[in-house]
Every structure is written in structure tokens, then in C-alpha cells.
What does this fold into?
Amino acid sequence: MSKALDGVRILDFTHVQSGPTCTQLLAWFGADVIKVERAGAGDITREQLRDIPDVDSLYFTMLNHNKRSVTIDTKNPEGKQVLEALIQKCDVLVENFAPGALDRMGFTWERIQELNPRMIVASVKGFGPGPYEDCKVYENVAQCAGGAASTTGFDDGPPVVTGAQIGDSGTGLHLALGIVTALFQRTQTGRGQRVLAAMQDGVLNLCRVKLRDQQRLERNGTMKEYPQYPNGTFGEAVPRAGNASGGGQPGWILKCKGWETDPNAYIYFITQAPVWAKICNVIGKEEWATHPDYATPAARLPHLKDIFAEIERWTMTKNKFEAMQILNKYDIPCGPILSMKEIAEEPSLRKTGTIVEVDHPTRGKYLTVGNPIKLSDSPTEVKRSPLLGEHTDEVMAELGYSPEQISALRTAGAI
Ligand code: COA
It folds into this structure.
């Protein structure tokens, strides 16, 4: 069966997490992704957080499926020539080096355009143009600079970063959308273009509702669905809202049976307005359905703490799956707090290809997250990540180099 991005060739100059997540998605959609790595060393994540000595780490293998690996020393003059040949042959160059690194290598936008005017050059950087544009950035820096950390955590504690890699993987996702959009525009214009996804911007895009709340706070001095209301105080900026819902339907995380020993025996419970009467029935507080202090969403806002305490008295009598089953019968929105162990063992996620077992020649079998985006006409087949330089000869041959030339370039340290 054909794939959505069949025929698209990507020069993948990415490393660590943000860039590789982007090119992995493109590879899953069928693009031929040629990962260029530094000869002898490769992507630094190959050796980071290793669980097996001398074997590519899970960090690397889980971010680089379905790619080919070539090693080129792009600071070596002959290595540069090989890179030029690749630029001429590819549709997209994706990179997430520190600001200026590609220019210092000699591959400015102007030079790339000379070599291939149809090429799309896509970059992840920490920041867009401005005071921080030259800074190197990792995940948590972006979470802090993009507004996530100041709005995550509890009011009486410090800012908190989230486990979801919204700075790295989130920005990789934004970049992938920019790339396919630019590829689509190229079908009309015939020209390449530059695509920039700054990690601060990507995080802020995902924190959009918090900028909404900043403006609500400035206008009204309070936000009634926040846990600070009605007894706490609001400052000038959006406060940390604990586990309150970011939307118009109040929610909170509540203990379930077993919480004393199981750190994940909790459920997220949403007091959605249309099912309020059903919630009252389930928790045995039928009188709240008509009581003037509880009957309407507005009346409930000052009492949310008490309401959730009462609901928790009920959830603590059930384990999180029992609670989920009962609540879903009544269309009450809720979600069990699933541990990574539970997710890894969940059969339905295996069935859909969201969790996949992959075999690797030096590591053996491991679990990975497959393609979360399902296309009905372009199925994803998750293939193992490449060994360092595994495809150098193959790709060099495709570029037209003879075995003798390849051997000479290897001796010269260019590949
Ligand atoms: N051959 C020769 N040299 C190579 C090479 C190759 N195949 N591939 C990379 N290099 C060189 C680069 O040219 C650069 O050299 P220079 O500093 O002399 O110009 C050097 O390797 C290091 O690249 P750099 O990106 O600076 O790596 P770093 O490890 O110092 O920094 C980051 C890592 C992630 C902080 C930085 O790349 C960055 O800020 N990237 C943008 C934001 C980002 O994506 N962050 C998220 C990471 S998950």
C-alpha cells in the first residue's frame, strides 16, 4: 500500500529530541528520512541514559524509527561536498542545531537555495527572533519560557514542569505541520521556503488558555473556577491552578480505593453541568440537584472544594476502574490516572499500534510509542532505528559515488 509522503526525501540533520520527533513522524507517513550524523559519535542520545552497555539507548531508538543513518563529517571539505549532493537530492532539510551552527558549517539559506531552490529548510530553535534568539534551549527551558511552568503546580508551591515533553516533542509536531504545509505550497509555487518552529512559541501555543485567563484576570480581578476563589487571593499574573480544569467545566483529581499505598489510585472527575443531577444521584446527594447553593454552575463555583470533597468520599469507596465504569454509564466525564506500567500493558493500545513492540539487532525487543496519528490510506509500520552509519554506503551509492570513491572518502575521514 502506498504511503502519504512516498517520494519525499528528507535530509534529517536533527539530534536529541525535538527535531527527531518531527522527522520520525514524516518517516512514519512514508518519507525517506536520511539522518546525517557525526562520524564516530552520532546523535548524542545514542549514548544517553543507556540501560544496556554499548547499545543504542531507548532515548535514541524511540525517536528515530524508520530512518536511515549516514555518517558525514560536515566540517571536512569533502564531507561538505557529500552534504551538497544530498541537499540537491532531497526535498526538505530539517535541523535543530544551536542558533548559527548551520551557517557556520557554510550552509546558509542563500547557499542552500543556490544548490536547490525547491528545498524546504525547517528548523527548531529555542526562541524566535528577539533577545534570546542566540540561546541554546532544552525541554524544561522552553516549558519555563513558554508559560507552562508558571501555570503548573499548586498555589503554595514552586513552578512545576510537566512530564509531557511539550517543548521538544510538542515543537517537533508543530514543525512537521509546517513542513507538510510548505510541501503543499511548493506544489503551487515550485519554490522552497524556510520553516521555523521556536520552542517557546510551541509551548505558548499549547498554553493558549492561560493567556486567555491572564486577560480575564486583568479585566475582572478574579477567576471563579480557580481554586483560589473565593477565599484565596489573586496576584497580577495567572496563578497555578493545581488540578483544576482549564475549561468551563470544573474538575479535580480525587482519591480512589487504595490511594494509601498506590500512588496512582486516583481519578479525574469533571462536574459537567448537563450531568449534574446524575452526579448527585451517584454520590447519594440527590438534594443537591435542586438546592439553590448547588443546582446551577454559577451557584456551585464558591462551593467547589466542598463538592469535590463529597464526591471523593464516594470515589474512595471504588477503585479507579470501578469508578470509571459506573460514571461512564451515566455519561459523567472522568479519567483514571494511569501509570506508565498500566499503559504499557494495555491491550487496546497494542491493538491500535499506539504501543508497539520492536525488535532491534543489538538491544532485542523493546516497547515504543507508535504513530499517534492514524491515516486510513497510509498505515504506519514501525521499523527499528538505524545503527550509526548503517546506510552510509547505500545512500552514497544512490548519490552516484562508486565503491572506490566511497572508500577514499572514508579514508579521508569525510564519511
Ligand atoms: N559533522 C561535523 N560537525 C557537526 C555535525 C557533523 N555531522 N553535526 C553537527 N556538527 C557540529 C555543529 O556544526 C556544531 O558546531 P559549531 O558549534 O562549531 O557550529 C556542533 O556540532 C554542535 O551543535 P549544537 O547544536 O551546538 O550542539 P550542542 O550539543 O552544543 O547543543 C542543543 C544542543 C540542543 C542545546 C542545541 O542544538 C539547540 O539549542 N538546539 C535548538 C533547540 C533544540 O532543538 N533544543 C531541543 C533539543 S531536544
User: Anything to note?
Assistant: The chain has 17 helices and eleven strands. The domain at 251-332 is CATH 3.30.1540.10 (formyl-coa transferase, domain 3). The longest strand covers residues 32-37.
